[in-house]
Give the backbone structure.
Amino acid sequence: MTSTRITAAALLLVAALQPPSFQAQAQTQSSLPTQIPQRNAILVGTAWYPEQWPESRWEEDLRFMEAANIKVVRVSEFAWSALEPSEGHYDMDWLEHAIAAAAKHHIVTVLGTPTATPPAWLTHKYPEILRVEPDGRRVTHGNRAHASATSPVYREYCRKIAEEMGKRFGHNPNVVGWQIDNEYGYALMSYDDLTQKKFQEWLQAKYKTLENLNVLWTTAYWSQTYDDWSEIPIPVGGHNPGLQLEWKRFVTKTWNDYQGNQIEVIRKLSDSRQFVTGNLMGFFDGFDHYIITEPLTFASWDDYVGSGHVDPDFNGLSHDLTRGFKRENFWVMETQPGAVNWAGVNNFLNKGEVRAMAWQAIAHGADEVGYWQWRSALNGQEQYHGTLVGPDGTPVPMYNEVRQIGQEFAKVQEAFRGTTVHSDVALLYSYDSHWAIQFQKHTDKYDDIALLKSYYRALRKLAQSVDVVSAYAPLYTYKLVAAPDLNVLPKDLADRLLTYVRNGGHLVLGPRSGLKDEHNELLPQRQPGYLTDALGGRVEQYYALEKDVSVHGDWGTGQASIWAEQLSLLHPGPKTLMQYGKSNGWLDDQPAVLTTTYGKGTLTYIGAVLDDRLMKAAADWMVKIGGVVPAFMAVPEGVEVSVRSGAGKKVVVLINFAAESRRVELGKAMKMLLRERQAASVELGPYDVEIIEPL
Ligand code: GLA
């Protein structure tokens, strides 16, 4: 994997040959791949589409950008027809001019490979590259993500355009990195014969024999038994859970190969300082993001609110999810400058909300925040989307807010150089488990992401920092690990988790955990499957609830809703922390939460979806047994506090998401970087922000 890291020795050598002003800059390099050498540590960017405008217009755009402290443009991700107007005839001069023009305004460029939008000459020549929908209809040209990711013809053309771009810009000093494709075609697949064949071949390579596959998918059920690999369908809903899960994995593999095809040529042709990323979409679940981000230098995501207003918990969780993909800082490649155009109601965010969101991104580990988009094309599908300049090319009201963000980023950026988020608490998120639950929710009301969020909200308030990581991530640094929905829990994973607990870790499992193995088969033992012995308890029966059930015990009294599991003790070892009240008869007086010591740690099983108050009490208990302390200090309700540290520094971000002002008491004088003063307290208006360096 390439990184933008520059070794200390190389820096010293380069610095010695430079004039003094450069030397001063060069001393402030960080080793984070998300922070660009010789640039501010945190940056504002925008998506710019020079191909939509005459070159004579660019200078004015760039002047406005520079005045707004915009330091990055992402360009070209939809510009294939401008870059290759006809087959094999490349026109990249305009892009080179645009990059150079931006550089004159101290703006660096991220190049997008334009493969989300194959040009008309290509789809016309090879109509078979157009995707086939699950209903058998082939899509037409004129939208985006319309090509098939499995098509070898399409892959060949993608590779060629990436190669030409790599040749031309791989050593361009003003190109800092690459974005592959755009949002990876929303993981849309082509339901054509070729894709089906590839899926079957992939299954054959994985399962080796049909007998094996037939056993692991229990195809004896409903006479699904396959006698030939070519009989296996692409699932379009309602299919076998084993087949459905493998399809998701095949989709992941397809998009991983699809990006790999481009990454390979770009890496070969570009300087190692140029990063390679892909713009993801938070909790979008089309593929396994832990796998997709593996070959990338760092992860990026597109942070859109859509209708309504930012939910700080969910947005914070989504940032932390993205940070957890590679367990390092990330970029927000796109976010909305006010409103989007695709939601039910495309309301505008309130004044100050975009700034609060920008700082929240940084607080959670982003090093760049990019606004989509600079200016609307005069025609095209997204005419109504939020922008920074209007159709007349002059600033809209949002421009000033982004300019303020840019000024603030520039002012305090040094405090963030080399820093990232460190957490004592981890939440485990597993795509296999998420998909397995989605395929068979058992109750419409079950929302595993909402459950994850309820754990996150309660735990983050107390710990002020939470990582969200793969179930297979190294866990030894965490004092507390919670897995709210670990439905798919194969033996190897159970062994890893038990090692963590045995060595002193505190593990909390939520409902539906340990029901399935990696083939989405029911485990031949009760939940939590391979962890049952260690827990000394098990799930006797699960119940989708029609109405809430009361629960009481060490965490107080409250309600379980949506899902409740009747637990039992296998021996007197475990402690019952909570039990159900009167309910459906089956649950009455039965354990709802069990905990036990195991090795040097503890293992806890929560068998129900708890209400917010109980979740808070549960989180209090969890941080206590884990010995987790807040990353900073207590802050008033509605204020989000985050800490980044590293390179011998610690920096605190305070954001008031409450509708009223909040006063944060700091106990002693601290340095406020935005207000430029020292004080022992700070008054934050709604959406207000302060950056603090504890003295
Ligand atoms: C996505 C795309 C952008 C644009 C925005 C609009 O994130 O990547 O090209 O369409 O949505 O919100």
